[in-house]
Write a structure and sequence with these properties.
The protein contains 3 helices and 5 strands; from the N terminus they run E-H-H-E-E-E-E-H. The chain is an alpha+beta fold. It has one domain: RelE-like (YaeB-like fold).
């Protein structure tokens, strides 16, 4: 089974998402964060389920969707996964990944 590693950057993004939503609704913030974690757990069994992110890089970076959010992840050579970041769909992902 694949091991999922949440990078420091991804954890920061997740906390920022939680804090932003919690200003208006703390229970909704908790549900969104839990939903993102649950969606990412799918990668343990199906690591290539996300669509391949097109870039000039040779790394296998993919994106998995959850609601308005994109979970960017890297499939490493040992087949384990690094979650790189959680991005709102309105953000330009290139600015943050490269």
């Amino acid at each position: 089974m694949v091991k999922i590693n949440w990078t420091h950057e991804a954890q920061k993004w997740l906390k920022d998402i939680h804090d932003y939503i919690a200003v208006d609704n703390s229970s909704a913030a908790k549900r969104v964060v839990e939903g993102i974690y649950e969606k990412a757990r799918i990668l343990e069994e199906y690591p290539e389920i996300g669509h391949k992110y097109h870039s000039d890089y040779n790394e296998d970076i993919r994106v998995l969707l959850y609601g308005h959010y994109r979970i960017a992840y890297l499939i490493k050579s040992d087949r384990n996964i690094d979650i790189l970041g959680i991005f709102h769909g309105a953000l330009e992902i290139n600015k943050y990944l490269f």
